[in-house]
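Field reference: "sequence" (input) and "structure" (output). Example, ATP synthase subunit delta:
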Amino acid sequence: MAQNGSEAGPLVAGVAGRYASALFELARDERQVDAVAESLNQFDTLLKESADLRRLVRSPVFSAEEQAAAIGAVLDKAGIGGLAGNFIRLAASNRRLFALPDMIDAFRALVQDSKGIVRAQVRVAEKPSDGVIEEIKASLRDIAKADVDVDLVIDPSLIGGLVVKMGSRMVDASLKTKLNGIRLAMRAAR
């Protein structure tokens, strides 16, 4: 227990956090956490690949009935059912589809926390080779003393190097930051 009386764990707040927590507890009680996570990941992939689906999820123009019918058709065609399918349908009928991407992220955080997996974001200027990615993961595992799930973000503005965020820690070893530091030092030397 944390000092404020709540259980220690990932911070999930707001509408997305409440929905994700309820789904996680239900999935855990039904011993379906991995199946629900897989189905939510499948829907998230569909969401990322389809501009029309993103528009349906985000737009307040569609009525709850229209959203529920359209989401139902998408879920049926994709073969997403069970707890995850019912959860997505509930979000549609409650006019909460706009928060669904955040709900999925919050659910993932709860799953990772329950499995002792630490999440890290690694920003790099260009996509590294698989070998370099494995070296980064191994280094982060050594630091975290736990399994690490790495979100790789390509950010060409970094020029080179990398920026790693893991929990509350951040290491910025990007060329952009180093060049800015040199520029500031040269201004101060004038």
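The two ends are 54 Å apart (CA to CA).
Residues 1-9 have pLDDT under 50 and may be disordered.
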